[in-house]
Amino acid sequence: MTLNEVKPGNTVKVVSLTGEGGVKRRIMDMGITKGVSVTVRKIAPLGDPIELTVRGYELSIRKADAGFIEVI
Predict the structure, then answer these.
(1) 3 state SS of 60
(2) Do 15 and 70 contact (CB within 8 A), yes or no?
(3) What is the pLDDT of residue 45?
(4) What percent of the chain has pLDDT over 70?
(5) pLDDT confidence of residue 6
(6) DSSP alpha helices (H): ranges in the chain?
(7) Most buried among 25, 36, 40, 58, using CB within 10 Å?
(8) Taking every annotated instance into account, which residue ranges of this chain make up the domain Ferrous iron transporter FeoA-like (predicted)?
(9) Cβ–Cβ contacts within 10 Å for residue 32, how many?
(10) In this structure, which long-range contacts are made by residues 18-26, counting pairs with CB atoms below 8 Å and at least 24 apart in sequence?
(11) Residues 38-71: pLDDT tens digits?
């Protein structure tokens, strides 16, 4: 399952990042790495962006980038 399939209010754990190059680096720079817990706070009406809480920080991520984050 990927992060863009998670419903708002749920907390999941990151299993792996499948993006390459700049996409993977951008995701990792936000603090989203393997093993970290991510809470989906809100999803915009059209699905973009997705608002998250990661390590106590509130972040917004594009739906396309969320598709590269595999979670359980």
Answers:
(1) strand
(2) yes
(3) 87
(4) 100
(5) 93
(6) 22-29, 63-66
(7) 40
(8) 1-72
(9) 23
(10) 18/68, 18/69, 18/70, 19/65, 19/68, 23/65, 23/68, 24/68, 26/65
(11) 999 999 988 789 999 999 999 999 999 999 999 9
